[in-house]
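The data are quoted verbatim for reference:
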Amino acid sequence: RGFIELQGEIQGVGRLSYIGTDLATALADRDVIMIVTTATGHRPVAGRMAPLLRDGQVILLNPGRTFGALEFSRVLRQCGCRAEPIVGEANTLVYVCRVPVAGTAVIKAVKREVSVSAVRAEATPYLLRRLGGVYPQFVPAPSFLETSLGNIGAIFHPTIALFNKQRIRAKEAFDFYTAGITRQAAQFLARVDGEFQSLAKALDARPLSVAQWLHSRYGLEPSDVYTMLRTNPGYQDIEAPTTLDHRYLWEDIPMGLVPISELAKALG
């Protein structure tokens, strides 16, 4: 039908000039390319895009997860890309949304700020100039270390999913971020956040803590993580998965937590 219906915080119709699987057609004459997929898709997408790019195109991974933009740039070179695009990553998605039926997106919340960085930090201002008019939420990060080490999904998703694994296996209906966050899960989540912060400090990076992130992205009153998650309006009515075969585990552990762990080991 050529459009996406938007409901919730943003209402209207988003018309699309092309919907299909021909990558050459999708990329032709595009100045800005936004990659919105799980981190497991970054490598294959980069490989297919490599011969189709031109100098100066902006490629933004939204989000980049953990070192997504770095991997994307490396794969482009490995696959013989001769162009010089500007590759960057966002720290998180701009929208909290779900797709109840094909062709309809329900926008549950719009984040107030999302940090972005190009792989080459000196290119970040240009990237923001190209995207800022459409996404005023984008703010510059000093480097991709900050956007990657601030991968909030890798902190939230596996922790909450594993603390609720029996409920998920039983296919119990509950809100993932609110009803799924117990005091014990929140304490463990804070420990994971602390390890991220320790690694970031060793690399002289300063990603936001979980509490700071929730405050800046959603405008929540500063409090403990348990309270902030339970009371976040943007997290209401987001249902938990009914299987552990879900991106919260098969994306966020190998593509999020494992790279963080390996980097920490490398730094001793």
Notes: The chain has twelve helices and nine strands. The domain at 3-141 is CATH 3.40.50.720 (Rossmann fold). The two ends are 54 Å apart (CA to CA). The beta strands are 3-8, 12-15, 32-35, 58-61, 86-90, 95-98, 104-110, 114-118, 138-140.
